[in-house]
Every structure is written in C-alpha cells, then in structure tokens.
Design a protein that fits this description.
The protein has a single domain, classed as Beta Barrel (OB fold (Dihydrolipoamide Acetyltransferase, E2P)). It contains two helices and eleven strands. It has a six-stranded mixed sheet, with no helix packed on it. The protein is globular, with a radius of gyration of 16 Å. It starts with 5 loop residues before the first strand and ends in a 5-residue tail after the last helix. The C terminus is likely disordered.
Length: about 160
C-alpha cells in the first residue's frame, strides 16, 4: 500500500484525529516552549529542534476543542506543511494505520466541516478525522508567523554569548 494511505492517529482528548504519514517527520516528548511575540493566536511559541526554530501550533484552539494546560505527557508531532515544519501539540500518538480509499470519505462530502479536513475514515469502529496540514494556517496567519519568526531569528542572531 502506498505511503499516502498510511496515517498517524493521535488523540486530542476524546476525538481521534490523523495526519498522512507522508507529512510526519517525527514525534517527540513535550519540551519547554519559548514565547514568540507577534505570532498568531494559535501559535504557542517555538521549540528548538536540531538548531531550527519550529512553531508550535495549539491544535485544540484551532479546532475549538476544550483547552487544557500543557502536560509533560503530551507529545509534539513534528510535521511538514507546504511552507515549513510545525509542531502540533497532541495528548498522545495512538498508532500508524493503513486505510483504503473505500474506508475514507473525502472532505468535500463532509460539508460544512471540511475546512481543515482531508477526509474522515472509520477504523475499528471509530471515526478518525484526517486533517489537511496545509489548511491549518490561513494566509494572514502564515504571514504573521513569518514576520514573528524573522524578528525572533534576527534578535537571536544579534545576541552575543561571549
């Protein structure tokens, strides 16, 4: 089966969600998030992954799920959008699963909830919402994030540790 039919299933409380595995770079334990002034509201800040500043997206806020404080048991899914790597805060990663085209209902058929969805699949009796990572940030949010990261990077480079 092709990679685009494999998904990473994760938890955000009760709802089970997924991303295509082709977009997922890795899953890491929660680490401290550094603030990112002037970033869009759904950006919690940034983390440093191998010398690269990765913006952390509050998935709960994006999808209007009940918010909660971050926990040391949370995980970050490091994933790639068309424009950048991002870290998604999730409660945990459940499994990697394969789905067939017959098991997935495409987002266009899920109106009016399809704004951020790639599709929905039923796996082991559970509905899994498969998200389209490229739809997580609006154009305005992308531009604000680019600006905030640029400012943070230039401030960081200007700091001397001698």
């Amino acid at each position: 089966m092709e990679a685009q039919n494999k998904i990473v299933i994760f938890a955000l409380g009760e709802p089970r969600c997924a991303l295509p595995i082709s977009r997922v770079e890795r899953v890491i334990r929660a680490v401290e998030i550094s603030p990112l002034p002037q970033a869009p509201d759904i950006i919690l800040g940034v983390i440093n992954v191998a010398g690269t500043l990765i913006p952390v997206i509050d998935v709960r806020r994006r999808f209007r799920f009940p918010e909660r404080d971050l926990s040391v048991n949370d995980r970050y899914i490091i994933a790639n959008t068309a424009n950048r790597s991002v870290a998604l805060v999730v409660d945990g990663v459940d499994e990697i699963s394969e789905i067939t085209d017959q098991e997935m209902v495409m987002a266009e058929q899920c109106q009016p909830f399809a704004e951020h969805l790639k599709g929905v699949a039923k796996i082991k009796g559970n509905l899994i919402m498969i998200y389209d990572l490229d739809q997580f940030l609006s154009l305005d949010e992308e531009q604000a994030l680019n600006s905030a990261i640029s400012i943070a990077s230039s401030e960081r480079e200007g700091t001397s540790y001698e």
